[in-house]
Amino acid sequence: MEEIKKLFELIGHKKITVYIMVFSIFVALIEFVGLALIVPYVSIAVNQTIPDNKYVSYITDALNIQTFPDFMVFASCFVVSFYILRLVINLIYNYVSLRFVNKMRHIVMSKLFNHYAYIDYAHFVFRNSSDLKKTLLQESLNTQNIIQSMIDIISELFVLLFLMGLILYTDWKLAVVLTVIFGVVFYMVTFFLKAKVNLLADDRKGYARELHRQVDETLNNFKFTKLIGAEGIRTAGFNENSYGLFRVNSSFQLINQTPKFVLETFGFIVIVAIIFYLIQSGSSEALIGTLGVYAIAFYRGLPSLNKIISSFNNFQYFKNTITQVHDDLKILTESYSSKSKILFNEVIELKNISFRYEGTNENLFNDFNLTIRKGDKVAITGKSGCGKSTLADILMGILRPQKGNVVVDGALVNETNMNAWRAGFGYIPQEIYLYDGTVADNVAFGREYDETRVIEVLKLANIYEYLQAKNGIETLVGEGGIQLSGGQKQRIGIARALYSDPHILVLDEATSALDNETEALIMDEIYKISEDKTLIIIAHRLSTVKSCKNKIILE
Fold it and tell me: What is the pTM of this model?
């Protein structure tokens, strides 16, 4: 199946996977031997005689066993020892297989997150972050269910094969008949359920996606939701999708349980038919021994057959997961090295830049040229949608133009020096995202932590004194910086941008959401901070860029 091929591409570790599969077959063999020991042991106990065959004779001679009680002691010890060994092997197998399955989930999650982190920005802007989170956190868990289902199918299939060998040895004609009968039953059950399971799988995917979106849209717009009184609408939408997911999962679980009852009923009917067959064929004297073989075979075989069907249904139900994860890992990523450094000492040139977003036919820029000298204070203005932020992204190397180049002091910005070029920028967006942690953590933002530098940039951003009245740099900001004002969040954003001592500061509508007085204060501070830096400001209001000597107006 195509899904299995994709699954092996996802998890890799083919050699370990094969080892686990072989181990599961070995465990199936141990299970079979354990079951096969019961019938002769019970038969010996009932007949109270030592079996007359060369293998038993070899054992009795080697151990000097001469009486039946002594032989029963040996047989009992042997069976008990084997079942203890079986227990140990099963425990080891469960430990190994569960670690393997959970590790595969870890591998899939790590692959996904590592891939997401390197998605090309031009493709990222067209992705729904809620869908990415759902795939990362939920669908990766479903891959665990799929892998476990595959292992269970292989293990239980070999249990059935070994049991079928036992039945063949006992009565090959009856074994053939039973194989045909249960084969037809298995086919009919899986055939009739497969289409329904596939439909439920599609519904599950849709409801789960909508649930994640409802949660993200509500929590990310919590204040606005309360303002317009949309709590009822949001909860109604969530409840509708939650109920849909409940209904789909309930239907699937019902379908998954149905084969168990069908097989148990059918198995009882077959046992009755076998008893009738043995009596009618004049084999009543061998009824106990023969029936014991079939009873044990059905006792272990029917659960195996049911587990195979259940695991197959699980695979069908969650197989969309494989396609979803596999497709997400095909999203275009960027890979830039840090082999070369690039120094900005004189001039940045944008030469003949042409750019358009994926899915659009019209270029946002056509043969656009721009020159920025070191220390310049450049304002980029224009109406909404004219490409101001896009131009800044191209300048910073976040977006790559379809045509043209960014040239710094005569050196081309390319794959070999892109990371070094990006590291020279400090970026302050309109919306500063602060995660639920301390001010210090938000300023460093995962970079090497330097407390002295954190304090220094907070002072430059003119917020350190305010924090001293709280808990200093260990002040908690709350999720999204909810415990801070808009101006305070912007100041922490400025400190974050300054932390790596960039050569170029880019303000992308960084103060547009602030009142005029706060904006004026922050802009004065930014101009002061950036005296020895190149400053690029994207803004609508002319008052924001009044101190910029170079003004670029985009149409």
Answer: 0.74
